[in-house]
Amino acid sequence: GSSWNKCDFETNLCKALPEFNLQPGWIRRNGQSGIGPPYSDHNGNESAYFLSLSSEMQSSSAALRTKVFLPTDEEHLCQIRFHYWVSQMSGTFMVGLQKHSEDTVTNIWQVSGELRNQWNVNTITINSTEKYEVVFLGMVETQRQGENVAIDDITFSEGC
Question: Which residues are in coiled coils (predicted)?
Answer without folding.
Answer: none
